[in-house]
Amino acid sequence: MTTVIYPGTFDPITNGHTDLVKRATTLFDKVILAIAVNPAKSPVFSIEKRLEMANTALSSIDFPSQKSVQVCELEGLLVNFAKDHQAKAILRGLRAVSDFDYEFQLAGMNRKLAPDIETLFVTPSEKYAYISSSLVREIAALGGDVTDFVPENVKAELLRIMS
Questions:
Q1: Which of 49, 83, 85, 95 is catalytic?
Q2: What span, in angstroms and rounded, lies between the C-alpha atoms of 1 and 86?
Q3: Is 133 a catalytic residue?
Q4: Known catalytic residue: 41?
Q5: Least confident of 93-102, 110-119, 125-134
Q6: Which of 24, 40, 144, 152 is spaced 20 to 30 A from 62 at the CA atom?
Q7: What is the dihedral of CA 126, 107, 25, 21, to 10 degrees?
Q8: Least confident of 2-11, 57-66, 70-79, 130-139
Q9: What is the CATH number for 119?
Q10: Structural domain that includes position 54
Q11: Is this structure's pTM higher than 0.90?
Q12: pLDDT score at 92
Protein backbone atom coordinates (compact mmCIF):
# COMPACT_ATOMS: atom_id res chain seq x y z
CA MET A 1 0.00 0.00 0.00
CA THR A 2 1.47 3.36 -1.01
CA THR A 3 0.79 6.23 1.37
CA VAL A 4 1.15 9.97 0.88
CA ILE A 5 1.00 12.66 3.55
CA TYR A 6 -0.74 15.93 2.68
CA PRO A 7 0.31 18.28 5.51
CA GLY A 8 -0.97 21.73 6.33
CA THR A 9 -2.68 23.92 8.86
CA PHE A 10 -6.03 23.70 7.03
CA ASP A 11 -7.44 26.72 8.88
CA PRO A 12 -9.96 26.05 7.40
CA ILE A 13 -9.97 23.28 4.80
CA THR A 14 -11.03 24.65 1.40
CA ASN A 15 -12.38 23.22 -1.84
CA GLY A 16 -8.83 23.47 -3.19
CA HIS A 17 -7.59 21.19 -0.41
CA THR A 18 -10.37 18.65 -0.96
CA ASP A 19 -9.64 18.70 -4.70
CA LEU A 20 -6.00 17.78 -4.05
CA VAL A 21 -7.01 14.97 -1.69
CA LYS A 22 -9.38 13.53 -4.26
CA ARG A 23 -6.75 13.75 -7.00
CA ALA A 24 -4.14 12.16 -4.72
CA THR A 25 -6.39 9.11 -4.31
CA THR A 26 -5.88 8.42 -8.02
CA LEU A 27 -2.13 8.13 -7.40
CA PHE A 28 -1.88 6.58 -3.93
CA ASP A 29 -3.68 3.85 -2.02
CA LYS A 30 -3.82 5.92 1.15
CA VAL A 31 -3.90 9.69 1.63
CA ILE A 32 -3.34 11.14 5.09
CA LEU A 33 -4.44 14.73 5.55
CA ALA A 34 -2.10 15.76 8.37
CA ILE A 35 -3.38 18.84 10.19
CA ALA A 36 -0.55 20.68 11.89
CA VAL A 37 -1.08 22.04 15.38
CA ASN A 38 1.29 24.94 14.51
CA PRO A 39 0.61 27.49 17.30
CA ALA A 40 3.12 29.86 15.64
CA LYS A 41 0.50 30.58 12.97
CA SER A 42 -2.18 31.43 15.58
CA PRO A 43 -4.95 29.47 13.86
CA VAL A 44 -8.51 30.79 14.05
CA PHE A 45 -9.89 27.29 14.63
CA SER A 46 -8.70 24.88 17.30
CA ILE A 47 -6.98 21.69 16.20
CA GLU A 48 -10.08 19.74 17.29
CA LYS A 49 -12.36 21.91 15.14
CA ARG A 50 -10.02 21.69 12.13
CA LEU A 51 -9.94 17.89 12.44
CA GLU A 52 -13.73 17.80 12.70
CA MET A 53 -14.26 20.11 9.71
CA ALA A 54 -11.82 18.15 7.55
CA ASN A 55 -13.37 14.79 8.46
CA THR A 56 -16.85 16.08 7.67
CA ALA A 57 -15.77 17.74 4.40
CA LEU A 58 -13.95 14.64 3.17
CA SER A 59 -16.70 12.22 4.23
CA SER A 60 -19.01 13.65 1.57
CA ILE A 61 -16.59 12.94 -1.30
CA ASP A 62 -16.93 9.80 -3.38
CA PHE A 63 -13.39 8.43 -3.49
CA PRO A 64 -12.31 5.59 -5.80
CA SER A 65 -12.94 2.17 -4.33
CA GLN A 66 -10.13 0.54 -2.36
CA LYS A 67 -8.73 3.95 -1.49
CA SER A 68 -8.27 5.22 2.03
CA VAL A 69 -8.38 8.81 3.25
CA GLN A 70 -7.50 9.56 6.84
CA VAL A 71 -7.36 12.82 8.79
CA CYS A 72 -4.74 13.03 11.56
CA GLU A 73 -3.25 15.59 13.89
CA LEU A 74 0.37 16.45 13.08
CA GLU A 75 2.60 17.52 15.90
CA GLY A 76 6.35 17.53 15.58
CA LEU A 77 8.59 16.94 12.59
CA LEU A 78 6.78 16.07 9.35
CA VAL A 79 9.35 13.50 8.20
CA ASN A 80 9.00 11.63 11.49
CA PHE A 81 5.22 11.59 11.04
CA ALA A 82 5.69 10.32 7.48
CA LYS A 83 8.03 7.55 8.65
CA ASP A 84 5.64 6.57 11.45
CA HIS A 85 2.89 6.14 8.83
CA GLN A 86 5.15 4.36 6.30
CA ALA A 87 4.52 7.13 3.76
CA LYS A 88 6.48 7.16 0.52
CA ALA A 89 5.76 10.79 -0.27
CA ILE A 90 4.68 14.21 0.94
CA LEU A 91 2.13 16.05 -1.18
CA ARG A 92 2.29 19.84 -1.44
CA GLY A 93 -0.03 22.08 -3.40
CA LEU A 94 1.33 24.94 -5.47
CA ARG A 95 -1.16 27.64 -6.42
CA ALA A 96 1.29 30.13 -7.88
CA VAL A 97 4.96 30.72 -8.54
CA SER A 98 5.07 32.66 -5.25
CA ASP A 99 4.43 29.38 -3.37
CA PHE A 100 7.35 27.63 -5.04
CA ASP A 101 10.31 29.25 -3.25
CA TYR A 102 9.08 28.37 0.24
CA GLU A 103 7.92 24.89 -0.78
CA PHE A 104 11.23 24.23 -2.55
CA GLN A 105 13.12 25.05 0.66
CA LEU A 106 10.87 22.74 2.69
CA ALA A 107 11.30 19.93 0.17
CA GLY A 108 15.09 20.29 0.26
CA MET A 109 15.16 20.20 4.05
CA ASN A 110 12.82 17.20 4.17
CA ARG A 111 14.98 15.39 1.59
CA LYS A 112 18.06 16.01 3.74
CA LEU A 113 16.27 14.68 6.84
CA ALA A 114 14.62 11.72 5.09
CA PRO A 115 16.09 10.97 1.64
CA ASP A 116 13.72 8.03 1.13
CA ILE A 117 10.59 10.23 1.27
CA GLU A 118 9.79 12.18 -1.89
CA THR A 119 8.01 15.53 -2.04
CA LEU A 120 5.51 15.89 -4.86
CA PHE A 121 4.15 19.24 -6.00
CA VAL A 122 0.64 19.30 -7.43
CA THR A 123 -1.18 22.30 -8.82
CA PRO A 124 -4.85 22.65 -8.00
CA SER A 125 -7.57 22.59 -10.60
CA GLU A 126 -7.81 25.98 -12.29
CA LYS A 127 -11.11 26.79 -10.56
CA TYR A 128 -9.38 26.52 -7.15
CA ALA A 129 -5.99 28.06 -7.96
CA TYR A 130 -6.76 31.38 -6.28
CA ILE A 131 -8.28 29.98 -3.06
CA SER A 132 -6.34 30.11 0.20
CA SER A 133 -7.49 29.62 3.77
CA SER A 134 -6.33 33.10 4.74
CA LEU A 135 -8.30 34.73 1.91
CA VAL A 136 -11.38 32.69 2.81
CA ARG A 137 -11.12 33.80 6.45
CA GLU A 138 -10.75 37.43 5.39
CA ILE A 139 -13.76 37.27 3.08
CA ALA A 140 -15.85 35.65 5.82
CA ALA A 141 -14.69 38.22 8.41
CA LEU A 142 -15.79 41.04 6.10
CA GLY A 143 -19.22 39.48 5.55
CA GLY A 144 -18.56 38.05 2.10
CA ASP A 145 -20.01 34.87 0.67
CA VAL A 146 -17.58 31.92 0.83
CA THR A 147 -19.96 29.36 -0.69
CA ASP A 148 -17.77 28.72 -3.74
CA PHE A 149 -14.57 28.34 -1.73
CA VAL A 150 -15.28 25.91 1.11
CA PRO A 151 -17.43 22.87 1.87
CA GLU A 152 -20.84 23.66 3.39
CA ASN A 153 -19.86 22.54 6.90
CA VAL A 154 -16.86 24.88 6.84
CA LYS A 155 -19.01 27.77 5.65
CA ALA A 156 -21.32 27.22 8.61
CA GLU A 157 -18.37 27.23 11.04
CA LEU A 158 -16.94 30.40 9.48
CA LEU A 159 -20.31 32.15 9.81
CA ARG A 160 -20.56 31.01 13.43
CA ILE A 161 -17.09 32.11 14.46
CA MET A 162 -17.00 35.35 12.44
CA SER A 163 -20.36 36.70 13.58
A1: 95
A2: 9
A3: yes
A4: yes
A5: 93-102
A6: 144
A7: -50
A8: 57-66
A9: 3.40.50.620
A10: 3-162
A11: yes
A12: 95
Angle of helix 133-141 relative to helix 152-162, nearest 10 degrees, comes to 50
pLDDT of residue 40: 79
State how far the Cα of 114 lies from the Cα of 82, in Å rounded to an integer.
9
Tell me if residue 95 is catalytic: yes
What is the tally of structural domains in the chain?
1
Helix (H, G, I), strand (E, B) or coil at 56: helix
User: Which candidate in 41, 46, 125, 134 is catalytic?
Assistant: 41
Task: Give the C-alpha separation, 91 to 33, whole Å.
Answer: 9
State how far the Cα of 162 lies from the Cα of 141, in Å rounded to an integer.
5
Over residues 46-101, the pLDDT tens digits come to: 999 999 999 999 998 877 776 799 999 999 999 999 999 999 999 999 887 777 88
Q: How confident is the model at residue 39 (pLDDT cuts 50, 70, 90)?
A: confident
Whole-angstrom CA distances from 118 to 73, 107, 109, 111, 142 are 21, 8, 11, 7, 39
Strands (E), the chain: 3-8, 30-36, 68-74, 89-93, 118-122
Of the candidates 22, 50, 133, 155, the residue annotated as catalytic is 133
